[in-house]
Specification:
By secondary structure, this protein is an alpha+beta fold. It contains four helices and five strands; from the N terminus they run E-H-H-E-E-H-H-E-E. The protein has a single domain, classed as Heat Shock Protein 90. Bound molecules: adenosine-5'-triphosphate and magnesium ion.
């Protein structure tokens, strides 16, 4: 996904408090970048779902939130990165209701619906990198 970063925040994720901090910093960045309330909430929700997954499945990782531009478009990208176990079947993980933790299994498919672009790069043993972008209307 080609894009030019303009401004960014990076948060190490190791605790529930880090998840809250990432969500809050991402919210501020999106607000400063001119997103409306609904979009800001969608971006903040995406950040907390991806950060919660880092804690739950990889135990630690990082969230980078950047303002990005592509051509005349301007937006915010959320990158969630970890060196955890990886996702063996990405297609399955994106299905509503699939969970290896007996949870709702809505975090990843929900996040994909909240954002405009969504990409997962993951393999067992190689960690997971998830990139999600929302463009400003
Ligand atoms: N960072 C990650 N590393 C390894 N596996 C992951 C990661 N993120 C998600 N997964 C896998 O993908 C599945 C689906 O994730 P998703 O967030 O949609 O659901 P969940 O976390 O199980 O439940 P919910 O988010 O609704 O509480 C997880 O159960 C887990 O097996
Ligand atoms: Mg989840």
């Amino acid at each position: 996904m080609s894009r030019t970063p303009v401004d960014d925040v990076c948060v190490a994720i190791r605790s529930d408090a880090d998840v809250v901090a990432a969500r809050s910093l991402g919210r501020s960045l999106a607000e400063q970048h001119g997103f409306g309330t609904t979009d800001v909430t969608m971006i903040a929700t995406a950040i907390s779902e991806l950060a919660r997954n880092i804690l739950k499945y990889a135990h630690e990782g990082e969230i980078v939130v950047e303002t990005v531009e592509r051509g005349s478009m301007s937006g915010v990208s959320v990158v969630a990165r970890d060196d955890g176990p990886g996702i063996p079947d990405v297609g399955l993980a994106l299905q509503d209701g699939f969970s290896t933790a007996n949870s709702l299994g809505l975090g990843l498919p929900g996040t994909r619906r909240l954002m405009d672009e969504f990409e997962i790069v993951s393999a067992p043993g190689s960690g997971t990198v998830i990139t999600a972008i929302k463009w400003r209307r």
